[in-house]
Write a structure and sequence with these properties.
Elements (H helix, E strand, L loop, with lengths): L3 E4 L4 E6 L4 E5 L6 H11 L8 E6 L6 E4 L13 E4 L6 E6 L26 E6 L2 E10 L2 E4 L1 H4 L8 E5 L13 E8 L13 E5 L29 E8 L8 E11 L1 H4 L13 E6 L14 E6 L2 E11 L9 E5 H14 L4
Parallel strand pairs: 3-5
Antiparallel strand pairs: 1-2, 2-3, 4-7, 5-6, 8-9, 8-11, 9-10, 10-13, 11-12, 12-13, 14-15, 14-17, 15-16, 16-19, 17-18, 18-19
This protein binds 2-acetamido-2-deoxy-beta-D-glucopyranose (5 copies).
Length: 348
């Protein structure tokens, strides 16, 4: 049972108190990176890739947890905490398990739709035998989120190569291919209905996510995250270059907005094929040129200064000329599944 979670866009740490049967924030007084690491590990992140703890002022007057003064560092995180009515200085812990969600904010929405270097640092190209097969999103130095149907028939890790930080095919010559140690498909993926169309790939060695590398994770949508600007969703895909050279693929970007599910599920669109864990989105600009994201590729949004992974591209008939929206898996509804499987393989 995972009893640690992150809340909202500030990454407020919350720990489930079995005593009070409620989620509680943790006072920052006495909190160290050692507890930060342990908490990230119990969510599912590798200890080795821990980023940082911070603090924020709380306005909540509910109960808190605080670090015991006589703590035993080796104990489980929940055993190091006691209930407390208040926090010194009203200061509570925020926890960043990875340095996620930053992207250079340069040429977005330029007419060309060509993405610029560093603007979508979580986008990866998942390749089989040197051919781009699917898109995916980096969520930590070890983990990629993609779609289940991408890996269904190619479930052996040895078949896959992951390219990160690339903008076109030429870049694959100068960037290392990362090998995959685990391919994990959602066990309830349904090939007919496309429900639970999500998968994880774990890399054999961690990605280099230093600031200079054009590679970095997108944030998973924390519990309680409020997406405030409904129009500002973006998709990216590796697509044929429009400049004639048919062999080359380049990273393209487009702004999309979420389509009401009732409309998308109606007889004029997908006629009942939209399940609870899916949502639909279409390009904002008339005559936009990207059909939908790469299969498995990310749909992201900018909220409170960070980029969040909201959807993974699963299907769409938009390219047939009928202008049907793209269909995405709802990553928020897969959050527990993602963390559970990261945790299961965190030290492999
Ligand atoms: C999200 O929005 C709701 C309603 O506006 C609000 O009650 C809640 O506190 C917000 N959550 C966060 C984490 O800001
Ligand atoms: C409260 O804040 C003050 C000023 O920032 C700081 O000097 C003090 O150490 C804090 N107290 C605790 C218990 O963290
Ligand atoms: C879409 O329509 C089908 C058939 O009417 C229904 O079973 C399904 O629940 C609907 N999807 C959503 C998300 O409401
Ligand atoms: C990115 O650019 C847009 C439009 O220029 C702006 O509204 C937004 O605040 C910028 N975001 C960041 C994180 O700099
Ligand atoms: C995804 O599912 C969550 C509930 O799990 C819901 O609150 C949210 O609105 C859904 N997102 C979209 C884009 O439909």
């Amino acid at each position: 049972l995972c009893s640690v979670r992150l809340h909202g866009s500030s990454f407020l740490l919350q720990i489930y108190s079995t005593q009070t049967k409620a989620w509680r924030s943790v006072c920052s007084h006495g909190w160290t990176d050692q507890q930060g690491r342990a908490s990230c590990q119990s969510i599912g992140y590798s200890r080795a890739t821990y980023f940082k703890s911070g603090q924020q002022t709380t306005s909540s007057n509910g109960g808190f947890l605080r670090v015991k003064s006589d703590l035993i560092p080796e104990a489980f995180i929940s055993q190091q905490l006691v209930l407390s009515n208040t926090c010194p200085n009203n200061s509570v812990v925020t926890l960043h398990c990875t340095d996620c969600g930053s992207g250079i904010n340069s040429s977005r929405a330029s007419r060309s739709s060509l993405a610029s270097v560093g603007s979508w640092p979580w986008q990866v190209s998942l390749q089989v035998s040197g051919v781009h097969r699917c898109g995916g999103a980096i969520i930590s130095p070890y983990w990629i989120v993609t779609a289940a149907h991408c890996v269904m028939r190619t479930s052996s890790p040895a078949d896959w190569s992951v390219y990160a930080g690339i903008m076109d095919r030429l870049n694959t010559l100068f960037n290392p291919a990362y090998s995959v140690s685990h391919v994990i498909m959602h066990e309830d993926f349904n090939i007919l209905t496309r429900e639970n169309d999500v998968a994880l790939m774990r890399l054999s060695r961690p990605l280099d996510i230093t600031a200079s590398s054009n590679i970095g994770p997108v944030c998973l949508p924390n519990v309680g995250l409020n997406v405030t600007v409904p129009q500002s969703y973006w998709i990216t895909r590796f697509d044929r270059s429009r400049n004639g050279d048919s062999g080359s693929v380049q990273l393209m970007e487009a702004q999309v907005s979420v389509v009401d599910t009732t409309e998308c599920n109606s007889s004029i669109a997908y006629n009942g094929k939209i399940s609870q864990d899916m949502f639909c989105a279409r390009e904002t600009e008339a005559g936009a040129r990207i059909c939908h994201a790469d299969t498995g590729g990310p749909l992201v949004t900018l909220t409170d200064g960070l980029w969040w992974l909201i959807g993974d591209s699963i299907w769409g008939e938009h390219c047939t000329g009928q202008k049907k929206p793209g269909v995405y898996g709802n990553v928020t509804s897969y959050l527990d599944w993602i963390h559970r499987h990261m945790k299961k393989h965190q030290d492999d």
